[in-house]
Amino acid sequence: MKKITLCFIVFITLYSCSTVPITERKRVNIVDDSQVLPVSFAQYDTFLKENKLSDDKAKTKEIQEVGKRIAKSVDRFMRANGMTEEANNYQWEFNLVEDDQMNAWCLPGGKVVFFTGMLTICNNTDGIAAVMGHEIAHAFAKHGQERMTSAYGQQLGGIAVAMGTSGQSNETRALWNNIYGISSQVGMLAYSRTHETEADKLGMVFMIMAGYDPEESIELWKKMKESAKGNAPPEFLSTHPSNDTRIENLIKYLPVARMNAKQYGIEN
């Protein structure tokens, strides 16, 4: 078993290594869009059926307009940088769901959920753009596919079987919930923090490309810190960097984000 695992690790490292555009971080991904996106879209539809969409038409419109505006900038970037086929695979969708959680998430392929509770932290449209840019960045950088690849390396085939399932079985849904949920393994938690930090940086670049104020992303995390009231778990046991770490990282990255947006941005 150890030999099989070692061979698998060598194989994916040699043949499945790529680079995240803009941040230039090396990543390993063996999960093809044709495998993951149909399941992603089905899971998203199921979630929307099982949860209540917001009745606030004005806020729903704002969420969707901000999301589409940033996604349009990302799409232009991809098509201008030889990623047309990949861009064609995205089916961007943005929905505001009635839930007090201060949270938002994005599944592979561009399916975004924004909880109404998150609006209590967003001071304005730029604040919404900060959250939206971050979530869109997860899809752009294929963080979900990376997490699947990592889990695949641990389970040696379990995900391949589940991904090959045509129906939405309980096992498949449990698999996705595990991949996008909170892991109990500290190693996976650290891996998740890498993705969160990268999404913070890419999200800042994307919101600048779309014409939003990137400094609002720093203000957003200051408000998140205030709302936590010191109750956040220790950073090494969290799937996310601490609020202080995120604020510090974003302040340092702001001039780089402006430079990257100018270098890679396509005129609106």
Automatic annotation (TrEMBL):
- Identify the cofactor(s): Zn(2+)
| Co-factor binding details | Binds 1 zinc ion per subunit.
Arranged from A to Z, the UniProt key words for this protein are: Hydrolase, Metal-binding, Metalloprotease, Protease, Zinc
- Cross-referenced PROSITE patterns: PROKAR_LIPOPROTEIN
Q: Which domain of life is it from?
A: Bacteria
Matching entries from Pfam families are given as:
Peptidase_M48
Stretches assigned to the Peptidase M48 domain: 61-251
Q: Where is the signal peptide?
A: none
Family note: Belongs to the peptidase M48 family.
Q: This protein is called what? A: M48 family metallopeptidase
Q: Could you tell me which species this protein originates from?
A: Lutimonas vermicola
